[in-house]
Amino acid sequence: MSTLLPVTPLIPSPQSLIPSPRVLLVAGEASGDVHGADLVAALKKYAPNIEVFGVGGQYLREAGMHTLVDTAAIAGMGLFEARDKLHALIRTYRQLTHLLRTTPPDLLILIDFPEFNLRLAKVAKQAGVKVFYYISPQVWAWRKRRVHTIAKRVDRLAAIFPFESAFYAAHGCHVDFVGHPLVDRVRATRAREETLRQLGLDPSKKTIALLPGSRAQEVRYLLPPMLVAAKLLGPSYQFILAVASTLAKEDLARQLGPQPIPIVQGDTYNLVHAADVAMVASGTATLETALLERPMVIVYRLAPVTYALARLIVRVPFIGMPNLIAEQRLVPELVQQEVTPERIATEVRRLLDDPQAYRVTQEGLREVRRRLGSGGAAERAAQLALDMLAAPR
């Protein structure tokens, strides 16, 4: 098991830091914007004179970063979206490489977004700029050969999953496990009964949450079988549908039709906390559901060609992050042709009708939460960054 850095950061003395350190930060995706904002807030807490600029979105701006390029301008959700934003990516890359070569910062912080960021890291190393990678790329899942590139171009890595440290260290990377930043963010703010009453639901009735994904294509593949599964499960249960902030609530309402299921946007953590079981699209939501200790059925479906290509390059035993962290099939996973209303309903019933299976699953999810650390990932990452700024070049 990987060991966390101290909960209380051991911040270098102000005298050891550059008087007004300049940090270039690149968060090319929405999740990176959120986690980067927590990191910048921690940096400014301990080094008020630090200047952070680069690629970010609303959250990073609110944390005090000067954005040269907005994350939304370059973020892509897949092959075709990335193609549409190729020109913006090229412009951004040229702008940042020019900056690294002409007015190099004291540190380059990269957050996920590996295809772009690893190229930028090469330029930074050539310019003599130290490189810190927060939320390390998931090369352990696919394209593992890139770990050798990371070892050459990145001075220090902050890993957020416990199994990552050993993998990166075995390939010569300087890596530290800081814990997962979602541990600090994922929590319910209301009691289960209060949430259900606000939705006009019965707190004494078994409740099932539907989380069909944050992308339109995911919802198109996953919501229909979820809705039919809800019909198969019948009136003995009640349902709630969580809509991601990236989607239009009205679009999901049209797909729902006459089914009497409350649709809620912007309150997912409270909805999952109020549910007994969740049907969840594979992705970050599975980890959030695990942190709320709610048993779930993970569903994953892509276009047949896309899935065939993914199978050629992805090398992991499970698709769900809770199962990867638990190192066992803790919660059921339904993939591609398995994603049918009948299979979903069967797995949900198994969890709800078998108290022993439910209890074992919930205990396993508590262990997943424990393995992700006790919080403070951004503070630990800030400690590493400030250590790098205090060290001689």
Q: What fraction strand? A: 15-25%
Q: What is the fourth-level CATH superfamily of the largest domain?
A: Glycogen Phosphorylase B
End-to-end separation in angstroms reads: 32 Å
Radius of gyration: 22 Å
Poorly predicted ranges (pLDDT <50, ≥5 residues)? Answer: 77-81
The number of distinct β-strands equals 13
Number of spatially distinct domains: 2
- Assembly state (oligomeric): single chain
Give the biggest beta sheet: 7 strands, parallel
Mean pLDDT: 89
CATH fold call of the largest domain:
Rossmann fold
Give a description of the structure.
The protein is of the alpha/beta class and 393 residues long. It has two domains: 14-181 and 376-390, Rossmann fold, CATH 3.40.50; 192-371, Rossmann fold, CATH 3.40.50.2000. Helix content is 48%, strand content 15%. It is built from 19 helices and 13 strands. It has a seven-stranded parallel sheet with strand order 3-2-1-4-5-6-7, sandwiched between helices. Helix 6 packs parallel to helix 7 (146-153).
